[in-house]
Amino acid sequence: MDRFPNAANVDFHSPLDLSKAATAVLDAEGRVCGWGPSARRLLGHPAEDVLGRPAARLLAGSTEQRLSALCAAHKPRSTVLDLRCQDGRTLRAAVTFSPLAHQDGAATVVVAADLAELRGWEAQLAMLQGLATESSVGLTIFDTDFHVVWGNVSTDLELAGVAQYVGLHASALFPEGEFISRHHPPDEDQVMEQVLKTGEPILGMHYRGRAPADPGREHVWSCSYYRLVDARGEPLGLFEESLDITEQYRAQERLSLLVRAGKRIGASLDVRRTAAELADVAVPQLADEVLVDLPPAVIEGRQPATGSAPGHSLLRMHGRTPEEFRTTPVSYPPSSLQALSLATSRPLVGDTTSEAAGEGAGGRGAAARPCCLFVPLLARDAVLGLATFRRDTNPDPFGPEEQTLAVELAERAAVGIDNARRYTSQHSAALVLQRSLLPQHLPEQSAVEVAYRYLPADSRVGVGGDWFDLIPLSGARVGLTVGDVVGHGVHAAATMGRLRATVRTLALLDLDPAELLTRLDGLVAQDSEPHADDGLGDEALGVTCLYAIYDPVSGRCVWASAGHPPPIVADASGSVALSALAPGPPLGLGSLPYENVELNLSDGSVVAFFTDGVVEDRRTDIDSGIDRLAHVLTWQRCPLEELCDRALSTLPPGPQADDATLLLIRTRRLGGDRVADLELPPDPAMVAHARTDTERQLESWGLSELSFTAELVVSELVTNSIRYATGPVMLRLIRDRSLLCEVSDNAHTAPHLRRARRDDEGGRGLFLVAQVSQRWGTRYTASGKTIWAELAIP
User: Fold this and answer.
1) Beta strand 90-102 with 77-84: parallel, antiparallel or unpaired?
2) Rounded CA separation 49/713 (Å)
3) What contacts 496, CB < 8 A, 6 or more positions away?
4) Which residues contact 465 (CB under 8 A, 6 or more apart)?
């Protein structure tokens, strides 16, 4: 299908051309003596109606005198006449009278055409003349061998004279030019061959090059190519139409660059990466190279000095990825353009870089540079550094629009760098806070051997809320806890620290795990209420926690979970067991009660407490992670430190999306040679028996020097139990890192320490116990209570 179906109707012959115009011949008396077919087509009169008759009858109105004058003229005359058509219409026509002289007399040839058609044809001629002499669109004609035939005035101006190129091949016009459109053949010869062969025009090709009339500046043209054919349809050559769209193209490029900058610059929250993002966006479209110089304070996340330009001790960024980053010190002399740009907070253009800056960059600045644009990085009224846009291969200077574009890119980069600086500062503060809130070391205990690993999340994610702890309890027991606060940042770290301290406080009350989690759940729920304004309520809505108590005397381990993965246990034989009890709800929901799980652990069992970062990530589910950790525990005879390393080495490679916390314990049992139990009936006479047995047991342990103190403590504790209890009293002595004295009974009331008055007969026993022991306390059991005291072993 033709692109322009009415193109065949376009005719550039004049309406007064003898092949188209109405023609007639008048004799000397003004009678019609010749009447052509074209005259009949124009006016409708057949030849028999007009031949031999006065031509004046064909005129509308009384113009006979005028007709006679035109016929009597001795040279061609043109005028406008109103002609009468056969159907009665009046046709205004352009008429030319040309006298003829022959031997029989005078005659006149009359040529007429519709005046409106003639005016249209004249407009077409004016248009063609305008395209040739006034149009800003370049028009060039090539023959079938692609040699220049003709060019209009616009082409003449671009080529600094088209005449010198006539007869030359098209490639001679712009020898270094190139097509930058990618949807057509990239070579000009191929484009012209395709149009000449197929007759299909190619429109809107973007061509980049340097015009001979302006060789110092790169231009972009929109070019279209059409085939020229003669009246028989044979190709005559090609017709090229070109329009200089340099400004529009550059404006579009600037717009697309800004769009790309909005997506790329500042998305990483990393100071070094943001500097590289600015270079990635600006090169090569705006500059051949971009250097970003920042003070160390900004790179480290600190606030830059206000009111002074950082012209000294800057670090120049190199590399495009964090792995390739390296920094080079650089400073600017006070007289340099860089220092002036920083001091005035204005962009400056120069043709060289300063010597000092060049030395800092490894000596590259010793040679002159064609063009450099220095733009200060400004954000929140602070100068963060300097961006240098440098052109080496492109000699075009930075124009006003390009300077504006560079300033806009620098502003975006400055905001991104400042955001990254603030994030780095907050992340560092959160990391310091988190590290200070986590235990710096776990105390050595006779009950367990301990190893742990804490792997923080990737810095882009932020500091998490994992915590772990080992809490020494009475009776040589230990409390073990692992927890996780959903979210990242300072709030998560602060919530973690508060909950860890709360767990430690509740644990020292000797609460069992389920009771401890119930009380902790109530505190979290209270902080999560809408009126809580401490800023931590939202973080606390996603808190999981596991708390366990291990007793090395009985080998009994009791634990309860609030939405946290249960521990994995590997016994001394290497057999791994998973808990069948599902965890309770996370803290703060208050929906279901928490339940205790009891396990009897053999000596040398390994128990793994962990957060979900150890067993779960975006690529694997939690079940696969638990199986992976359980497999590592089958090597439970290995040292715990080695087991920790093995467990973390199985994590998928790449950045961690969440903190990973692993706490491993290997259980120990206190044998019968370190524990002595004595059951006493509720008889006051048994107090002396308890003192005697205590003295005898301490002598067997080689602790006779503690006999007096221990007998005093045992005497007071047993006396209180016999006085207030109704059943038998149990005395237990444990030789551990200290001497532990425990007295248990079936009473649920705890004694209180008080200062006895001078006339009181009692009330001094617990006071004496508190004075001679390291620490003492009471814990409740299912059958009553236990009062205990610890004595230091000299």
Assistant:
1) antiparallel
2) 154
3) 434, 437, 465, 466, 467, 483, 485
4) 483, 484, 485, 486, 487, 488, 492, 493, 495, 496, 539, 543, 659
Which string of b and e fits 389-426 if b means at least 16 CB within 10 Å? bbbeeeeeebeeebbebbbebbbbbbbbbbbbbebbee
Between β-strands 77-84 and 775-780, what pairing exists: parallel, antiparallel or unpaired?
unpaired
Distance from C-alpha of 180 to C-alpha of 618, rounded to nearest angstrom:
43
Q: H or E element: which one contains 223?
A: strand 219-229
Report the side by side order of strands in the sheet with 371-379: 326-330, 314-318, 289-294, 382-391, 371-379, 348-350
> Are 11 and 124 in contact, with CB atoms under 8 Å apart?
no
169-180 pLDDT tens trace:
998 898 888 888
State the pLDDT at residue 126. Answer: 87
CB-CB contact of 158 with 211 (8 Å): yes
CA distances from 64 to 42, 59, 71, 83, 463 (A): 21, 8, 11, 12, 107
Q: What is the DSSP letter of 456?
A: P
- State the Cα–Cα distance between residues 584 and 560, nearest whole angstrom: 8
Q: What is the mean pLDDT of residues 80-108?
A: 84
How far apart CA 21 and CA 28 sit, in angstroms, is 22
C-alpha span between 20 and 22 (Å, rounded)? 7
Angle between helices 622-633 and 640-649 (to 10 degrees): 150
Whether residue 284 has a cis bond before it, omega within 30° of 0:
yes
Confidence of residue 537 (pLDDT cuts 50, 70, 90): very low
Give the position of tokens 């998305």: 267
Q: What does the radius of gyration of the chain's CA atoms come to, in whole angstroms?
A: 51
Is the distance from CB of 680 to CB of 728 less than 8 angstroms? yes
Q: pLDDT tens digits, residue range 227-248?
A: 999 878 889 999 999 999 988 8
Which residues, 6 or more positions from 627, have their beta carbon under 8 angstroms from its beta carbon? none
- Alpha carbons 303 and 421: distance in angstroms, whole number: 8
Q: Report yes or no on whether pTM surpasses 0.85.
A: no
Which band of pLDDT confidence, cut at 50, 70 and 90, is reported for residue 129? confident
Average of pLDDT values for 469-476?
Answer: 92
pLDDT-wise least confident of 92-101, 527-536, 741-750 = 527-536
Give the per-residue pLDDT at 764. Answer: 63
Phi and psi at 194, nearest 5°, equal -65, -45
Number of Cα atoms under 13 Å in the Cβ half of residue 559: 31
